[in-house]
Write a structure and sequence with these properties.
This protein is mainly alpha-helical. The protein contains 6 helices and 2 strands.
Length: about 120
């Protein structure tokens, strides 16, 4: 519809740890440290949510793609009047995190170990 307008509510990416260097949760933490707010909207997937716990057993092993996508999905900031400058900054931070993935992963693991 040419008269329709997007709400620009979600911009979700899938984070592949092998190719990016960080998993979804590590990227989420690293972006948060850069003051970039993200959301894990699809985690856990519906069949693993507490409200459906009585059905969980019957779905074990039946929805591997759903579970994989859920563990990799991360929604980045987006809104209808987002300036291009802000989009570029988010992209630059993500690119920088990818380039420094090994260092960041090491720092996050160290941080997690000292917090226990």
């Amino acid at each position: 519809n040419p008269l329709g307008r997007s709400s620009y509510k979600d911009f979700t990416i899938l984070v592949d740890e092998d190719s990016f260097g960080l998993n979804r949760d590590q990227l989420c933490i690293a972006l948060g440290k850069e003051n970039i707010q993200t959301k894990k909207y699809y985690c856990p997937p519906l069949h693993l949510q507490k409200a459906y716990s009585q059905y969980r057993e019957q779905y074990i092993g039946l929805l591997p793609v759903t579970e994989q996508v859920s563990s990799q999905s991360l929604s980045l900031p987006i809104y209808s009047h987002m300036e291009e400058k802000t989009i570029r900054q988010v992209c630059q931070v993500i690119a920088s995190l990818h380039e420094r993935a090994e260092e960041i992963r090491h720092l996050l693991v160290e941080s997690e170990e000292t917090s226990h």
